[in-house]
Design the sequence.
């Protein structure tokens, strides 16, 4: 049984169209896509247990001791933390704070977190973080 060239082309075209239709039918609906990470949500999950205001937060207490009231100990009140500084501290750690791996905080989450924490950043502020 021989198949003519025209029949093979029709079959190939049919397979291509079916594949395209199937792909389109299974394409991700933007409503089903995960939302961009929220910097606030990342902060609340990973950072707030140590850096939220009030007693019982070792990161905040450590910064209170370090800065002796000259700089706010609560990260969200700081004006001297740029997004880049926040990113370095998160990825490399600082003092007793361990670094966070990309499997814990993804690059997209880190960008959102850095923007959230640094939302009060003022470019001309002298940074005690570098002292």
Sequence:
């Amino acid at each position: 049984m021989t198949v003519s060239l025209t029949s093979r082309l029709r079959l190939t075209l049919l397979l291509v169209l079916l594949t395209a239709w199937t792909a389109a039918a299974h394409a991700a609906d933007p409503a089903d896509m995960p939302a961009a990470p929220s910097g606030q949500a990342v902060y609340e999950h990973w950072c707030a247990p140590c850096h939220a205001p009030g007693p019982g937060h070792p990161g905040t207490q450590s910064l209170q001791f370090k800065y002796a009231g000259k700089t706010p100990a609560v990260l969200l009140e700081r004006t001297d933390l740029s997004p880049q500084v926040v990113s370095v501290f998160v990825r490399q750690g600082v003092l007793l704070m361990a670094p966070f791996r990309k499997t814990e905080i993804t690059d997209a989450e880190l960008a959102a977190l850095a923007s959230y924490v640094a939302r009060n950043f003022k470019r001309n502020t002298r940074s005690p973080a570098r002292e």
Notes: The mean pLDDT is 84. Residues 39-124 form a domain with the Cytochrome Bc1 Complex; Chain D, domain 2 fold (CATH 1.10.760.10). The helical segments are 5-25, 39-51, 58-67, 83-92, 107-117.
